[in-house]
TrEMBL record:
This is Lipoprotein. PROSITE patterns: PROKAR_LIPOPROTEIN. It comes from Rufibacter tibetensis. Keywords: Signal. Residues 1-18 form the signal peptide.
Length: 168
């Protein structure tokens, strides 16, 4: 009987402490889209930054980006929370064609005639600084530093999620 009591006293803390609630894992960080119908996924997930407005009258500025060796997508909106942000009325989008991850060979800006361009913020948790959303836009070529770049680039079925970093 002494043996069972000792065993119970040794195992009881194990059972009690093993049942403690674990911290929730960090949210998955991703930035994925279809670029002209071909899957395009950021190698480092989404880069998301939030700059607070100067006062309550100013909108916050939300910056969302994705980067890989062949290109960089950059979007920004005047951010007021969950909702649909039509572009270019409430923000901007750009794409830079790259070589080697850092040499710009072409640059594109949001096509102002694209009536379907938008960023949709589907989830925003300001306490955890986590944001999730979708996007689509067409960009028109501004400059080309090498030949062969298309005149327009279409981004469809875009999705992102990530931790929001504060910006000065």
């Amino acid at each position: 009987m002494k043996y069972l009591r000792s065993l119970f006293l040794l195992l009881a803390p194990l059972f009690l402490f093993s049942c403690l609630e674990e911290e929730a894992p960090a949210p998955e960080n991703y930035f994925i889209t279809q670029k002209d119908g071909v899957k395009w996924e950021s190698e480092q997930g989404a880069s998301v930054g939030l700059r607070k407005g100067q006062d309550s009258k100013d909108a916050d500025s939300l910056f969302i980006g994705g980067h890989k060796v062949d290109g960089w997508v950059s979007m920004s909106i005047g951010f007021k929370g969950v909702g649909t942000y039509k572009l270019p009325a409430t923000g901007q989008a750009r794409y830079y064609g790259l070589v080697g991850g850092d040499v710009v060979v072409s640059s594109y800006k949001l096509d102002k005639d694209d009536g379907n361009a938008e960023i949709v913020i589907t989830e925003w948790n300001p306490d955890a600084n986590v944001i999730k959303g979708t996007f689509r836009f067409r960009a028109r070529k501004l400059t080309e530093y090498s030949t062969g770049s298309p005149e327009t680039v279409n981004f469809t079925q875009g999705e992102f999620q990530g931790k929001v970093n504060s910006m000065p």
